Amino acid sequence: MNRSLIQRALLLIAAFPLYSVAADSALRIDDPYVRLVPPNAPASAAFMVISNSGSTERQLLKAQSPAAKTVELHTHINDHGVMKMRQVPSIAIKANGRTELKPGSYHIMLIDLKQALNEGDSVPLTLSFDDGSTQQITAPVRKIQAAAPAMDHGAMKH
Amino acid sequence: MSRRALWILLCVGLAALLAWLSFAWQPPAGVAALHNAPQRAETPTGGDFTLASADGPVALANYRGKVVLLYFGYTFCPDVCPTSLSTIAQALSMLTAGELERVNSFLISVDPGRDTMAVLKAYAPFFHPNIVGISGTADEVAQVARQYGARYMKQKPDADGRYAVDHSSFTYVIGADGKLAASLPYASPPQHIVDAIRAQLGAAHANQLTRP
């Protein structure tokens, strides 16, 4: 696929945010985003909340994206302060439950980014589940910041 | 059996039990794990080091009077390092300009094989211009990590030769006297880092002032 075709495809998908192929699926994806990383960083990660309104546990089995050469499901294990990142075969979403893909936990790892991601870019992702359904989403590239309390000038010592 | 023989039997039995306890008995896994926890390891003392940056050597000894933040990570890290570096960046942006002038932050790469000086220079300041990427030979980095109690282990490469590096994710705060003042764990809020920096800036200030 040539570059302009990819760009047109990106634009097209970006015009329909959260458009889902499996509209009748019990699975819903909310607040997807990709972490903004330095332009030379080889990898980034996508995060989101996956909700399952069905009565059967579902598994996210695979994620694909044209933005990276390899896309893998990962989690982190905090072993006495050592953060161990490990590939996982699937991510479960319990019946009538939700699973949060978030920093320091489950994430979709985008390895060998094809081009640098800029804030505001949209990254298309195709998620495949164990019931055979797929969901196509676009995740905006976002700078991640921990929630910081507003500056309290009253508390500052002058 | 005589009373005397019974006593001897009891003593031999107790001695055997003691011997077995001291040689063979292993505490349950949970207890053993606690003893292996990093906080029980020899207390890291920090201390001076010299590593390389794209703009020349960085020697901690040259930063007396400044508060120094250290973070051990690597640029291939897709999640934990960017999270921690973003948090440090947020903390730095919460300081006044005057405070920021007296703070220097360093990302020490635990992956010197891939993180060249040029890679580090393009990566670290992206989070905040105050953050400088430094590294050295594998041995030099290992020595500094030992000093500060940072731990890391390169994982087996996949078919494409890509590998992750497991690593502890503390933000080390070094006071104006060059001594390790605080080790803040992963996911510490920016305000905790600000508080730790201000505590050290305050201590340095108090030492310089001769109050009437």
Write the layout of secondary structure elements.
The complex is a heterodimer of chains A (158) and B (212).
Chain A: H1 3-14, E1 27-35, E2 43-52, E3 58-64, E4 68-79, E5 82-87, E6 91-93, E7 97-101, E8 107-113, E9 122-129, E10 134-142
Parallel strand pairs in A: 1-10
Antiparallel strand pairs in A: 1-2, 2-7, 2-8, 3-6, 3-9, 4-5, 4-8, 9-10
Chain B: H1 3-23, H2 29-36, E1 50-53, E2 56-59, E3 67-73, H3 80-93, H4 97-100, E4 103-109, H5 117-127, E5 131-134, H6 138-148, E6 152-154, E7 165-168, E8 171-174, E9 180-184, H7 190-208
Parallel strand pairs in B: 3-4, 4-5
Antiparallel strand pairs in B: 1-2, 3-8, 6-7, 8-9
Helix pairs in contact in B: 3-7
Outline of this structure?
The complex is a heterodimer of chains A (158) and B (212). Chain A is mainly beta and 158 residues long. Helix content of chain A is 8%, strand content 48%.
Key features of this structure:
heterodimer, A: 158 residues, mainly beta, ten-stranded mixed beta sheet, 48% strand, B: 212 residues, alpha/beta
Q: What is the helix content of chain A?
A: under 10%
Distance between the termini of chain B: 87 Å
> What is the helix content of chain B?
40-55%
Radius of gyration of chain A: 17 Å
The biggest sheet of chain B amounts to:
5 strands, mixed
Q: What Rg of chain B is obtained from the alpha carbons, in whole angstroms? A: 24 Å
- Terminal CA distance of chain A reads 60 Å
The shape of chain A, in one word, is globular
| Strand portion of chain A | over 45%
Strand content of chain B: 15-25%
Q: Oligomer, anyone?
A: heterodimer
Strands across the major sheet of chain B, in which order? 5-4-3-8-9
The sequence of SSEs of chain B as H and E is HHEEEHHEHEHEEEEH
- Poorly predicted runs of chain B: 26-41
Mean residue pLDDT of chain A: 84
- Sheet with most strands of chain A: 10 strands, mixed
The number of helical elements of chain B comes to: 7
> Would you report the number of β strands of chain A?
10
